[in-house]
Amino acid sequence: MFTQYDQPPTPPSFAQKRGVGMWRYAELLPIKDSSRAITLGEGGTQLHLCNRLSDRIGLRHLWVKDETKNPTGSFLDRGVSVEISWAVEKGYREVCCASSGNLGASAAAYAARAGLLARVFVPSDVDVGKLCQIIAYGAELEVAKTHREAHELAESCAKASWRRLLTPANPFFLEGIKTVAYEICESLGWRYPDWVAAPMGNGGLISMIWRGFCEFKELGLVRDEPPKLIGVQAQGCAPIVEAYDRGLEEALPTQGIAYPLDIAVENPLEGYLALRSIRESGGGAVAVSQKEMLEAVAELARLEGIFAEPAAASVVAAVRKLVEDGAVERGEEVVLVVTGSGLKDPEAVRKIPLSSKALKRLFAKKGFAPLTLSETKRAVLRVLGESGPIHGYGVWKALLHRFSIKLSIPTLYQHLQELEEMGLVRRLPPAKVGGRVRVYYELTQRGAEALG
């Protein structure tokens, strides 16, 4: 809720004297000479009051901190700007990193700005929009088979003394991220909202948002208490959310599979900090499905004109859940941190149903053919199409005996969940059969069309 002051806090003199952008807070950043900072104009992003989205979700005051407007389209530019500035101060000639996309794009851009060589290692499932950015900025690019292999290659590359390894856990990188909190506070007139929601991959963003709010409180720039935090991850790979639900202090590594890649981090580097920050704030952690994220992408774009990638739009789906559950009251003020542009993940648009055959033909001509299904997923659809409604164990047996496809039971249910989120499979209400409760699945019309 809006906090009213008889005499609002006085903005610090350094913020009064400077223009927009993150480096207006230079005194609170760990760079000796900010006049030589490596910058592309990051920060200073708009805080939008989103009335139409507020009405749809059922909130009185809903804001979006639009980080899609950073130079490479991601909030990571804030951290990379500080990190590269520090690397230049220390005389590094090259930087290297492992990335599924956003970090690599940002590192490549700021290294180019600084005149450094960037070496970026990406997994084979890197998002195509981010891959194009990395290539355009002139980085040396190497494609690894897996995320783990990409990280191992980056660490090996950084053994040379003239190369700086850039990771989301680097302290200088994290210091840049906290400026998101500074700007939210300043944009609201030197006060806090009730809640702030942010996506979590490694957990650094939500940790540093908390740090930024606490620093402003300690400096006396804000009188009320910092907001409660909502951390958001993807169902299927949500180690921080699972640790929060179980009351753990550390996020345990998982081997789940989830989309989008940005927040599907199996072993989050700042999981402990994220959990501590959420609990200190009195907030919570939520996992949302791929389907919910894609619906949020469309909703945010059509209602407020903000095109976000699925990981970034996850906060819309999460807050909707919390409002429906009553955890967030309808009269409270909420800020959503939307972390990255939808142009970075054009593949996501293919997962949103198109309204006409003409659009489908146009997309196919532009190289965006309908989403390709793996042989395993096509086999699952065939089983459902030929057998009618069938329970998961029945699908597992049919795959083994008819197609010689041997899967673990958890892997099968992961495939079924993904097909359900794509709208190709429908889960039916549980039924009691032979004294056991079973969940049955059936093919949807879209699933039948996908089989051709």
Produce a short descriptive summary.
With 452 residues, the protein is an alpha/beta fold. The protein has 19 helices and 15 strands. The protein has helices at 13-17, 51-57, 76-89, 102-114, 128-136, 147-157, 171-177, 179-187, 204-218, 239-246, 271-281, 290-304, 310-325, 347-350, 357-365, 375-387, 392-403, 409-421, 445-451, and strands at 47-49, 61-66, 94-98, 117-123, 140-144, 163-165, 195-199, 228-234, 284-288, 333-338, 390-391, 425-427, 431-433, 436-438, 440-443.
Task: Please tag this protein with its features.
452 residues; alpha/beta; Rossmann fold; Arc Repressor Mutant, subunit A; 3 domains; six-stranded mixed beta sheet; four-stranded parallel beta sheet; 44% helix; disordered N terminus
Structural account:
Strand 4, helix 5 and strand 5 form a beta-alpha-beta unit. Residues 1-8 have low confidence and may be disordered. Helix 12 (290-304) packs across helix 13 (310-325), helix 16 (375-387) crosses helix 17 and helix 17 crosses helix 18 (409-421). The protein folds into three domains: 17-72 and 173-347, Rossmann fold, CATH 3.40.50.1100; 81-172, Rossmann fold, CATH 3.40.50; 375-451, Winged helix-like DNA-binding domain superfamily/Winged helix DNA-binding domain (Arc Repressor Mutant, subunit A, Orthogonal Bundle). Helix content is 44%, strand content 15%. The longest helix is centred in the last third of the chain and has 16 residues, at 310-325. It has a six-stranded mixed beta sheet with strand order 1-2-10-7-8-9, sandwiched between helices. The protein has a four-stranded parallel beta sheet with strand order 5-4-3-6, sandwiched between helices. The chain has helices spanning 13-17, 51-57, 76-89, 102-114, 128-136, 147-157, 171-177, 179-187, 204-218, 239-246, 271-281, 290-304, 310-325, 347-350, 357-365, 375-387, 392-403, 409-421, 445-451; strands at residues 47-49, 61-66, 94-98, 117-123, 140-144, 163-165, 195-199, 228-234, 284-288, 333-338, 390-391, 425-427, 431-433, 436-438, 440-443. It contains 19 helices and 15 strands. With 452 residues, the protein is an alpha/beta fold.
